[in-house]
Design brief:
The structure is a single chain. By secondary structure, the protein is of the alpha+beta class. It contains 8 helices and 6 strands. The strands form 3 sheets. A two-stranded antiparallel ribbon has the order 1-2. A two-stranded antiparallel sheet has the order 3-4. It starts with a helix and ends with a helix.
Length: about 230
C-alpha cells in the first residue's frame, strides 16, 4: 500500500494533476458488513466449475500411475488454481517407499504449467511433460510428422517444449488423457462419488483418501490374474 501511495504522489507531482479514483487505504482489520461466510462448511471455497458458474468446493488432486491406473498420491486443497499443487504432489510421490518405484516422466495438462513446476520435477529427477497452453485439435500434417531441431543451450522449459513436439514426446503426452480421466470418471459414475459428505478440510481429505483407496482396491481386483 505504501508503494501505491508513493506512486500516486509521484504522479501527482509530475503531472500537476490529482489522480482520479480513491486513494488506496489500508485493509480493514475485521470483516466488512458485506462479507459472506459459508455456514455449512467454512473451510470450503467458491470455485469455478465445469460448464460455467461457481460453487462452494474443494479441489481434489490425484496422481495416477500409467498402466495400472492406481492412485499413488491424493490430496484435497482449498485453492482452485492447480499450479500450486504440482510440487506438493511431487513431494508425496518422492515420500513413497522405494519399493513402490520412482516415476521417470510426469504428464500434466496446461493448468499445472509454470517454470517453477518444470524445475521442481527436474530437481526430483522426473522429466516433466506439461502442456504450455491449449493445443490445437487438428494441427497441419507437416507439424504432426516434422522433427523439430533441438534448441541450443535450452532452459528447462525450452527443453520440455521441444520434447513435447517430438514423436516420443507426443506419444507419451497422449497417455495423459487416458490415465487420470478414466479414474475420475469411474469414481464419479461407478462409485457414485460426486460430492463430499464430510464437512471441514481435514475430514474432506480423509474422505478423499477413502474414496481413492476404494478405487485402488477395485482396480487391483481387476488387475489380479484369474
Amino acid at each position: 500500500m505504501e508503494a501505491r501511495l508513493a506512486a500516486r504522489q509521484e504522479k501527482e507531482k509530475r503531472t500537476g494533476k490529482k489522480p482520479g479514483g480513491k486513494p488506496p487505504s489500508p485493509p480493514a482489520s475485521g470483516p466488512s458488513p458485506t462479507d459472506q461466510i459459508n455456514l455449512t462448511d467454512e473451510d470450503s471455497r467458491i470455485m469455478p466449475v465445469a460448464g460455467g458458474g461457481f460453487e462452494q468446493c474443494y479441489n481434489a488432486q490425484a496422481v495416477v500411475a500409467e498402466g495400472s491406473l492406481l492412485v499413488v498420491a491424493a490430496e484435497v486443497v482449498q485453492a482452485a488454481n492447480d499450479k500450486q499443487q504440482l510440487e506438493p504432489m511431487v513431494d508425496k510421490i518422492m515420500a513413497l517407499p522405494e519399493e513402490a518405484g520412482r516415476p521417470d516422466t510426469l504428464l500434466a495438462d496446461s493448468g499445472y504449467f509454470s517454470a517453477a513446476n518444470v524445475d521442481a520435477c527436474a530437481n526430483a529427477g522426473i522429466e516433466p511433460l506439461i502442456a504450455k497452453g491449449r493445443q490445437t485439435h487438428y494441427p497441419p500434417l507437416s507439424e504432426r510428422i516434422a522433427e523439430p531441431p533441438p534448441p541450443e543451450n535450452p532452459t528447462s522449459v525450452e527443453a520440455m517444449a521441444h520434447r513435447l513436439k517430438t514423436p516420443d514426446g507426443k506419444r507419451l503426452y497422449a497417455l495423459r488423457k487416458q490415465t487420470p480421466e478414466p479414474v475420475f470418471g469411474i469414481i464419479k459414475s461407478v462409485l457414485g462419488f460426486r460430492q463430499f459428505s464430510m464437512r471441514g478440510h481435514q475430514k474432506a481429505c480423509g474422505e478423499w483418501n477413502l474414496v481413492t483407496m476404494a478405487w485402488n482396491i477395485k482396480r487391483m481386483f481387476a488387475l489380479t490374474p484369474a
